[in-house]
C-alpha cells in the first residue's frame, strides 16, 4: 500500500486487535517505554490524521473463522463472522532506532478505547 511506503524511517502501527486479552506481557522495558510514549498524548476521539485536511482510508474485510451449523432442510447456515477494519494512525509512529529496532507492536483495542466504526 502507498501509505506504508511513506517515510521509511518511521514505522506506523494501526492495529485493531479484536481477540487479544488484557493480560499481555510486554517483553522489555524499551517496549513499555515505547507504548507509554505513543499513548501519552493519544486522544481516541481525534481523527487519526496529521493534518486536518487528510483523509482516513479505511479498509474493511470479513473473515469467516467458524461455520457453526448447516441446516440443509431449512437451508440455513449459522456462522461466526468477524468484520475487520484497518487504517493507518500516524500518531502511532516512532523512530525505531530509538527503540532498539522495534518495528511493530500489538495494542489491545480496548486499551485504545476504539469501538467498531460500522457494520
Ligand atoms: C532516528 O533516530 C536516530 C537516533 O536518534 C537519528 O539519528 C535519526 O536521524 C532519526 N531518524 C528520523 C527519521 O528522525
Automatic annotation (TrEMBL):
Keywords assigned: Receptor, Signal
Pfam families: Neur_chan_LBD (PF02931)
Entry keyword annotation includes Signal: yes
Cited InterPro entries: Neur_chan_lig-bd (IPR006202), Neur_chan_lig-bd_sf (IPR036734)
A single Gene Ontology CC term: membrane
Signal peptide residues on this chain, from the entry's feature table: 1-27
Full protein name: Neuronal acetylcholine receptor subunit alpha-4
Organism of derivation: Desmophyllum pertusum
Gene: CHRNA4
Amino acid at each position: 500500500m502507498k501509505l506504508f511506503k511513506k517515510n521509511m524511517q518511521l514505522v506506523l502501527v494501526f492495529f485493531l486487535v479484536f481477540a487479544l486479552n488484557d493480560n499481555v506481557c510486554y517483553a522489555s522495558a524499551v517496549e513499555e517505554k515505547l507504548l507509554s510514549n505513543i499513548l501519552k498524548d493519544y486522544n481516541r476521539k481525534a481523527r487519526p490524521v496529521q493534518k486536518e485536511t487528510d483523509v482516513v482510508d479505511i479498509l474493511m474485510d470479513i473473515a469467516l473463522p467458524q461455520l457453526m451449523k448447516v441446516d440443509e432442510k431449512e437451508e440455513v447456515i449459522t456462522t461466526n463472522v468477524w468484520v475487520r477494519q484497518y487504517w493507518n494512525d500516524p500518531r502511532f509512529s516512532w523512530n525505531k532506532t530509538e527503540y532498539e529496532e522495534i518495528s511493530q507492536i500489538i495494542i489491545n483495542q480496548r486499551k485504545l478505547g476504539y469501538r467498531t466504526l460500522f457494520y
